């Protein structure tokens, strides 16, 4: 599937942008791509719209009662409400339908994070920026008699919401953890999250 199939109108002049986050309505050209919505008046010092489709929570249509067209109300995940006024009913419905189709698309590979391909070489591996081993040492220097590091969740098979390395009581084996997790909500099991050195307390 190509995004062009979902966007019969990719550019439309004469669209009015308004909302609580804009001091005055902005008249300009609306452009829609597979992942972004743009509106620009091409005037110096005038606010513009640059919105990622993933930031949209809901799209509503409000037809004008006495004139053609209507207002597309876009409710964003950051609580912004953006309104697009379009004075042609066919264009109004076409843009609204395109937005609804793209926002409600559930195919993961077409989401922006998976679809985007940078045009420059990646110089560092982002997966190596954060080291679970280093973070664990900050919480609880290992080895300690009461605690140990477990690799039982290495592939996130025991609990999908826990990290792959965890600190657990030294007296409990990995087999016991795996079995006990089967009887707990979402496979969660007791782990060390914080250690208060002054009073030897932990959570």
From TrEMBL:
One biological process term in Gene Ontology: phosphatidylinositol dephosphorylation
Residues of the Myotubularin phosphatase domain: 126-203
Gene3D superfamilies: Pleckstrin-homology domain (PH domain)/Phosphotyrosine-binding domain (PTB)
Gene Ontology terms: cellular component: cytoplasm
Domain of life: Eukaryota
GO MF annotation terms: protein phosphatase binding
PANTHER family named among the record's database cross-references: LD06050P (PTHR10807:SF73), MYOTUBULARIN-RELATED (PTHR10807)
Family assignment from sequence similarity: Belongs to the protein-tyrosine phosphatase family. Non-receptor class myotubularin subfamily.
Designated name of the protein: Myotubularin-related protein 9-like
């Amino acid at each position: 599937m190509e995004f062009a199939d979902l966007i019969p109108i990719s550019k439309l002049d004469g669209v009015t942008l308004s909302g609580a986050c804009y001091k005055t309505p902005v008249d300009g050209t609306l452009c829609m791509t597979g992942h972004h919505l743009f509106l620009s008046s091409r005037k110096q010092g005038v606010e513009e719209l640059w919105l990622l489709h993933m930031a949209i929570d809901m799209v509503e249509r409000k037809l004008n009662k006495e004139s053609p067209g209507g207002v597309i109300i876009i409710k964003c995940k950051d609580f912004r409400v953006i309104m697009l006024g379009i004075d042609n009913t066919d264009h109004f419905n076409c843009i609204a339908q395109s937005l609804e189709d793209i926002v409600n698309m559930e195919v993961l590979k077409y989401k922006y994070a998976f679809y985007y391909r940078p045009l420059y070489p990646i110089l560092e591996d982002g997966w190596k920026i954060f080291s679970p081993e280093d973070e664990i040492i900050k919480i609880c220097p290992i080895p300690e008699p009461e605690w140990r590091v477990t690799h039982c969740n290495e592939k996130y098979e025991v609990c999908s919401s826990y990290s792959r390395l965890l600190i657990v009581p030294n007296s409990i084996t990995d087999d016991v953890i795996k079995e006990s997790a089967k009887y707990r909500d979402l496979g969660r099991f007791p782990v060390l999250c914080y250690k208060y050195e002054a009073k030897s307390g932990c959570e």
